[in-house]
Sequence to fold (1152 residues):
Amino acid sequence: MHAIALNHYLIVAALLFATGFAGVLVRRNLIIVLMCLELMLNAANIALVAFARFNATPEHPLMDGNAFVFFVITVAAAEVAVGLAIVVALYRRRSTVMTDDLTALKK
Amino acid sequence: MLTQAAETFRSLAPNGVDWSSIAPEIALGVWALYVLLREAFRKPGSRGAATFTTIFLLLFSLLCVRNAFAIPAGASASFFGGMIEQSRTTELLRAFFLFSGFLTTLLGGTLLKKQGVPQAEFDVLILLATAGLMLLAQVRDFILLFVALETMSISMYVLVAYIRHSASSLEAGIKYLTQSGLSSALLLAGIALLFGAAGNTALPGACADPFSFRELRVFIFLNQGNAFVLGGAALVLCGLFFKIAAVPFQIWVGDVYQGAPTPVTAYLGVASKAAGFVLLVNVVTGPLLPLRGVLLPLLSAVAILTILFGNLAALGQQNVKRLMGLSGIAHAGYLLMGVCAAMALNVDWPIVAVYFYLFTYLLASYAIFGVMSVLSGEDDSAQTLNDYAGLMKRDSFLGGILAVSLGSLAGIPPMAGFVAKLFLFIAAFTAHLYWLAAVGLFGVVVSIYYYFNWMRVAVFVPCKTEDEVEAGTLKAAPIASGFWLRTVLTTLALITVCLGFWQGFLAL
Amino acid sequence: MDTSCTCPFTHVGSAVLFASVAVPLICAALLYLGSVPKMVAKVMAAIGFTVPLVLALYLCTQFADAVKISGYAFYSDASLGLPAAGISLKLGLNGIALPLFAMAAIVSFAAGIYAIAGNQDRQQLYLALLLTMAGGVLGLFASIDIFFFYFFHELALIPTFIMIGIWGGTARRVAAIEMTIYLTLGAMLVLAGLVALYVGSGIATFDFITLRDYLAANPLSLVTQKWVYGLLLIGFGVLVSLFPFHTWAPRGYANAPASAAMLHAGVLKKFGLYGLIQIAAPLLPDGVGQWTNLLVVLALGNILVIGFITMAQKDLRYMLGYSSVMHMGYAFLGIATMGVLGLSGAVIMMFAHGLTIAALFLMADCVEKRAGTTEMASFGGMAHETPVLAALFSAAIFASVGLPGFANFWGELSIFTAVFNMNHLVGALAVLGIIISAIYGLRASAALFFGSRSAAYEKRIAANGKPADLTFAEKLPILVLLGALMFVGFWPRSISDSINAEMSAKYPAAPVQQVVPSAAASLSQDGDVALSGERKF
Fold:
């Protein structure tokens, strides 16, 4: 039995980040794209918290990392709120949430 | 009154925190709340606060310029435990962002009326975005960098999608949001990696505060080969490349510039890009400077690709907003040349050259976008070169403004753009970046073609006849613009010409 | 600027020089500002074109006795811009700049008078642009600071594009765009070269005097000199239509309005040659030799290849456009010799060619005004109707061929002598150019004015009546141009002395020159070519 170490957290974070990254690039549904964006931010959050926890020593408590995560959560919430609002407005006009149908802007 | 408020703030502050140092940003936030409240309780038919907001931004900008010259050159002060550093340069950058906010609200007044959308929320968002940008000019810490950047970005998402009855504006908004969100996530991941590496007490020079630029620089100097450091630096740069629209993070530019309301396009093209450059300069000459050996070839390659892509993509472009966006990519490439030189030489004057270029770019771009907002019809995303046919004859004032500004963008003496480009090329030569300079010169020649082509249409192509106007082929025939807009456009053009002759205030 | 607290003018001459550059620009600025009655615009333009001519002639008389500061008479230094970056508006004339400055003033005057008398639509804008060009070309020859040297060139170049685009001939769109791209490319290469000089010198200044003195003591490395000079040679070469970078010139000139063609082909194009002689070669003496062979080949290309193409032209304007490209070959050959004789010859050639080609473009426009075409096959025997035009045109053709009595003769003779001394074969090939230009020049003259009438010409006379001879407003500029040519043709020392003195100072590496008086000077004394003792390269 091994204790859960920093590397395990980082691997989870990396997997989540990669999933999110691939999702943003590949998926065509805007809602899912927004979810993937959240996934990436949260992957970074996991990494930040893990680093803050495992790098902390009595002399260097490294609370900054934990504090930063709260800012990121706030930012992510704002971002997804704006994103969903735009998606809803777009759906009212175009009746679609698929990126392939967004063709009003052409060369 | 103001001093009293400042005193109150000071008494609230814990050690080393001086709220008065960010009083302008706080004032912008307070004013934004006031505008929102006033709008909520406004009787229908009464005047909003739009005019005051515009004047407020202009006065603040002038105040910052005055403050800047009250600070002795070379002096700097840190606040909030080193999160913020203020000097004459940052004060001038604050003025820069306030000035572009002022111009954006002014153009907004012209355009939003035509589109039939309210202005109060627009002004609020501009105020908040400007506050974010002003903080970005002073940050020396990655937490504040991320928060200020997102304050600006989230305001921008809404602004790009502001015309909510227009499909193209909404489309541009969602495209900007997804791609900007992606770049923010990359930036955040990069910050996390740097944080993880720099906080590791097993490594030499581990930091007590791994987000601080100053501490990171020492750490990175001691751990140049560390994989986390290199990966983190690369991801941070990716996030910043998106903001300045450097290749390969330029895909969003065409659609977003075209779909956004014209004043927002201007804001995006000037203020947001300038903020990206300020951050890039502060990062690559700050914490990442020890990685110069790796980053210089990388940045040079990016600059070359950016110049080539921007100019070649703009060549056949008919839509003027796309043209401005794509040629803006090329300008980012020239600016990157200055950043490379600053990094290679590790001196300050190429940075001054970069900021001067940004200022001339602001003058010329806002003048052109001002002409665009005047000319635009109901759908301002569909402006093409044809709409400029015979502009010189229809309205020689707007034609003249366009000529001066396009000349400045193309780098024709005696306009300021020429001198600004000259400084960047001198910087590149001094840093022995010959290939970069050669590609830059090639880019300038190509850019002359499309800028002059625009002028050619405005001067030589006869304007369409009245019949065609009635048949609906020509959009927005009557050219009406307010006195203040004309005054401001004239001022911008005059400064452009004057700066071409006199740049004595620059500390080169 | 001239009212700043520290007066930049050392004495009257410097104020006069400053004024002669400023007056046309001020007049132009006033004309841009607002619409004025036609008469007022014409009077203002007349002031803007005449004042520099008068002042330039005054400066010519004062030059010999003027106080020279670092070799420049009429020196003034109005610091605006960036003293810290080594840029300031320094004006002054040396022996090379003086004749070219005078030539610029004369051609500006001629082009200006012709434009004032003409009736272009939107004449005010036309005059304002032309005044800008005039101010630009005067400024570029008077600039000591390299930054302003380039600046004034661009200032004059932009109006050229605009004038071709608005008032040009049938192919004006293509011509304007092609010329813009080509010349911008050339200007950018030049800019790159100048910036390389600025940076490479290590002292970060655009001031020519400082650069010259510094680089004389601390020359750049051979490799740097080679590449910077190469950059400048190609860049200037594009601007001067060096073969094979000449394709913009014929179409551009053929479609340019007369006054713009006169000022560009006559004066502005000399920017490149002037830059090579005055700036590039003295600052990069070791770089020059690396490119001599290439330059000689390209210059021969100008003379022979373009010469044959010129002979094949059927349209008078295109023929003049090509001939102006061809004659640049002589000037380049003169530069390639890098001796006092060849370089002085090149400067005299520049002076003479500027006046000649301006007169020819002016007369081509007169011909077109009368006939509506410049197709040479549709003329013949016009000398009966327009004897004065025929006489002046033939005189200008003689000048361009290089007959004695015109300044061109001295320029070509000096160049040929120097080239022959350098390499007999090259000299022989270059002299072929005289025959070529005699053939096409005289053939054009004959086709237009002599022989029997063509059918097309008969038809035109039947439809429109006989063409009238030159009016006074057309005669005056032509006479001024040809008069200046003949003045120098009969008294070459009026300009060659100052040129030779300056060249000897600039290229002191040729001690032989001290012993043997240079040919241009000795020729005027005894009419014989001093072949022996010239420096061999």
Helices of chain A lie at 6-26, 30-55, 63-94. Residues 6-100 of chain A form a domain with the Helix Hairpins fold (CATH 1.10.287.3510).
